[in-house]
Amino acid sequence: MAQDGARRGLAGVDAAARRLGLHPGMSAAHAGALVPGLHLVPADEAADAAALARLGLWCQRYAPIVALDPPDGLMIDITGAAHLHGGEAPLLADLSARLERSGILARLAIADAPGCAWGVARFGEGGIVPRGGAGQATTGLPVAALRLGFEAVRALQDVGITRVGHLLDKPRASLRLRFGAELLFRLDRALGREPEPLTALAAPETPRVALRFAEPVGARESLERIVADLCARLVPDLERRGLGARRLDLVFARVDRLDQAIRIGTAGPSRDAAHLARLLGERLPLVDPGFGIEEAVLSASRVEPLAERQDTHLAAGPQAPDLAALVDTLLVRLGAARVYRLAPVESDLPERAVRRVPALAAPLGAVWPTDLPRPARLLAPPEPVTAMAEIPDAPPLFFVWRNTRHLIARADGPERILGEWWVADAEADLTRDYYRVETEAGERFWLFRDGPMQANGRWWLHGLGEA
Amino acid sequence: MPPPRSSDAPTLAELRRLTDRAGGGREAPDPRALPFGVSGLDAALPGGGLALGALHQIHESGPRGRYAAAAVLFAGGILARLDGPVLWCLHSRDLFAPALARVGLHPDRVVYCETWRDAEVLPAMEEGLRHRGLAGVVGELTRMALTPSRRLQLAAEGSGVTALVVHRLCAGEAAEPEPSAARTRWRVAPAPSEGTNRRMGRPRWRLDLQRCRGGAPGAWIVEACDAQGRLAVPAVLADRPAAPERVQRRAAG
Questions:
Q1: Which homologous superfamily does the CATH classification assign to the domain defined by A208-305?
Q2: What pLDDT is attached to residue B237?
Q3: Which residue of B has its CA nearest to A328?
Q4: Measured between CB atoms, which of B94, B103, B198 is closest to A410?
C-alpha cells in the first residue's frame, strides 16, 4: 500500500490477492470493499530498492552486466554469457527455478533488445523471443509495453491505438507530429533499432579498478596495454584484502554506450597480474571497440581468500611446477569442460573405468589394475565384426572388420566381464568374453563376444593396440 | 675507414647462436638425453639417448596408422621415465587412459585437453612448452607443416620441456613425410611377438629412426614398453649374434 497524495493505493499484491481480483494501482478503499479483512502493509520503498539491488548482485552469477530497473525489474545482458549455462533456454529455466525456490514471483523474458524483453516480461507471456523476432513478439502487446508514461498511453488510447501493432504500420512522421519524439524513441528501443545502454551494477565490496580515457581508444594494442594496466592496479587491492581472483569481469564502456564485457575464470585464486592479464588477453579478440572505448572497468566478481606465499630459497628439491597458470590459460581458451585429468573408477566395464577430475585436483594416487592388459585405443561404441572360432570358448581364427580380413596368429583369453546389475537392470545378463588377439603382422586387437556361442553371441571389436 | 672491430665480434657470435637455434648450423650434442636402455638404439642417437627439450615426431605405419595405438604407447613410455606433469592434447575421444598407466604413466601426472583440430593442438602444445617443470607435452596431430614444427622446437628448446607429436594419419595420406624441424622422427609398427603354442608374448615393435639430426637412422625390433616404460631387446635377438647369420645367408645364395 502506498500513499500518493491523499489517495492510498495498492503498490503490490501477492499471489493470493491477485486471485481475489486485486491488482497494483487499485485504491485501498476499493480493495478493502472487495475483500473484507484485507491485510494492508505500508510500502517500504527503501527496503524494496535495497532488496532489488541484492537480487541484482546475485544475478551477476549469470552475466557481468546486470542493471536495475526500479521499482521491480532487473535487466541482465547475457550477450556472450548464455553458453556458460548451456544456452538461453537452460539459463532461463535455471534462473526461474532458483527465483521460485527463494519465493520470488518473477516473469522472465529473453530478447534481442532490453526494451523488447521488458515488454514481453511485463505484458506478454515471457519466455524467449527468437533472434530478429522483436517486431512479431511486441505486435500484440498493449502500448504500455513500450515503457510510455501514463499520459502518452492515454493519448494513444483516445485515438484507438491500443496495441503496439497498430503503431507499426503508421507513418513515422505523423506519429512524431502527433505524439512527440518520445513515442518513436520508445518504439525503436523495443524493436531493437535504437541501442539501449545498461548501467552495470557493482557490489560495493567488489575489488574493482577503472580507467577513463581522454580520447576514445580502439586499437588492439591499446586494449592490451589497458588490460595489463588494470590488472596491475587490481592486484595491490587484492593483496591488501588477502584475496585471489576466481573470476574477473572487464567492461569496456563504448562511446555509443553499448558496453562490451568479457569474463574469465581461473582454476584457483590468483593475484598474479601478468597471468590475469594474459587470460583476459585471450578473450580480447571478442571485444568490438566500435567507435572507441572511453572507460574500462575491471572487477573481481568472485574472489577467494589467498594466503601470502613466501618464496623460500632454501627448499631442497625442485619445486612442484605451477600448473595453475597453464591450466587457466587452456581453460579460458578451450572452455571449462575440455581440460581435465582422468582417474580410475572401480568398474570392470572398460567404458566405465575412467572418470574425469578437475585438472588441478589433488593427486588421487589410484591406478587401474596393472595385471589386466588394456588397449591403447578404445572404440566407443564397439564395432561389430564377423569372426569365426573353431570351438566354443576358443579365440577366433579370423575376423573381418571394415571389409578387411585379419588372420589371427596368436590369442589370449577369454577374460569374462559381467554387467553391473546394480547400475542398470538391463545389464543383469550382460556377459562379455574378451579376447586379446594378434595378427600375423603383430597388430593387436581387443575383441569380445557378447554371449556364449551357443546363444548366438556376436563379435565386437572394442580396442586397438595393447599395453 | 676500418669497421669497428670491437662491436663486430659479439654481433657475429650472436648471429651464429641464432642460426644454430634455427637449425642452420651444426649443433653440439645435448647433454640432456634420455637413454632407451637398448644399446643399438642409444648408440644411434646423439648424446646416447632421446634429446630432452626438443621436438620428436612419432608416426605409426600400417593400415591402422590413423589410430596410432603403438605410437601412443611409445610416447607414453618415454614420458613415464621422466619426472613431472604431462600435457596431452587429444585429437579424439578414443585414447584409453588405463593403457598409458600400464606403460608407467601415472594418471595423476597427465592433464588432458580436448583440442579436436590441428589448429587447436598446436597453440595448446606451445602453451604447454612454455611451462618449465612439465615432463613433456604430447600432441596428436594429423599433419604438421614446417613452420609450426619450428615453433614447437624453439619453444621446447627454450623451456627444456620435451615435445612429442603423435601423427594420426588420414586414410590415403602420402607416405612421404613433410619437412619438419623436429630433432628425430620415428616410425613405430607392430611386429609379431614371440608366442608359444598360439599364445601371445610381450608385444614387439619395429622402431624406425627415420631422421635424426646428428645421429644415424636405423631400424630395430624391440619389446614394447613394460610397466616402467622401458623397452627391451628381444631375448632371441640378443642372444644370437647377427653377423654370422648374414654370412651364412650369403653362402647359401
A1: DNA polymerase, Y-family, little finger domain (3.30.1490.100)
A2: 59
A3: B127
A4: B198
Q: What's the gap in Å between the CA of A372 and the closest CA on chain B?
A: 9
DSSP sequence for chain B: ----HHHHHHHHHHHHHHHHHTT-S--PPPS-EE--S-HHHHHHSGGGSEESSSEEEEEE-STTTTT-HHHHHHHHHHHHTS-S-EEEEESSTTB-HHHHHHTT--GGGEEEEE--SHHHHHHHHHHHHTSTT-SEEEEEES---HHHHHHHHHHHHHH--EEEEEE-PPTT--SSPPP---SEEEEEEEE----STT---S-EEEEEEEEETTS--EEEEEEPP-TTS--B--HHHHHS-HHHHHHHHHHH-
Chain A contact for B129, CB < 8 A? no
Domain spanning A2-43 has what CATH number? 3.40.1170
- Of 3.40.710.10, 2.60.40.1180, 3.40.50.300, 3.40.50.2300, which CATH number belongs to B30-191+200-252? 3.40.50.300
Write down the domain spans for chain B.
30-191+200-252
Q: Quote the pTM value.
A: 0.70
Crossing angle between the packed helical segments A172-179 and A150-158, to the nearest 10 degrees: 120
Which positions 79-98 of B are in contact with A (Cβ < 8 Å)? 84-85, 87, 93-98
Nearest by CB to residue B200, choosing from A330, A342, A436, is: A436
Ranges in chain A annotated CATH 3.40.1170: 2-43
Strand partners, A157: none
Report the amino acid identity of residue A224.
E
A209: its cell numbers: 579498478
More confident residue, A339 or B17: A339
- Grid coordinates standing for B144? 604438421
Per the listing, cell 513515442 goes with A183
Residue B186 scores a pLDDT above 50: yes
Q: Distance (Å, rounded) from C-alpha A433 to C-alpha A449?
A: 5
Please report which residue ranges of A196-337 form alpha helices under DSSP H: 220-241, 273-283, 323-334
The secondary element (H helix, E strand) that includes residue A413 is strand A404-418
pLDDT computed for residue B87 by the predictor:
95
pLDDT tens column, A396-435: 899 999 999 999 999 988 888 888 888 888 787 888 999 9
Distance from CA of B16 to the nearest CA of A (A): 32
Is the per-residue pLDDT at B175 higher than 60? no
Cβ atoms of A271 and A304 within 8 Å: the answer is no
Tally: H helices and E strands in chain A:
13, 18
Please tell me which residue, A390 or A252, carries the higher pLDDT value. Answer: A252
B250 at interface of A, judged by CB pairs closer than 8 A? no
Q: Give which of B139, B122, B18 is closest to B72, Cα–Cα.
A: B139
Q: B72–A344: do the CB atoms touch at under 8 Å?
A: no
| Closest CA relative to residue A465, chosen from B28, B36, B77, B115 | B77
Could you say which residues from 319 to 378 on chain A have a Cβ atom under 8 Å away from some Cβ of chain B? Answer: 319-323, 325-327, 329-330, 333-334, 337-344, 350, 353-354, 359, 363-368, 370, 372-378
Look up residue B214 and give its three cell numbers.
646428428
Task: Note the ipTM here.
Answer: 0.80
Q: Do B107 and A463 touch (CB under 8 A)?
A: no
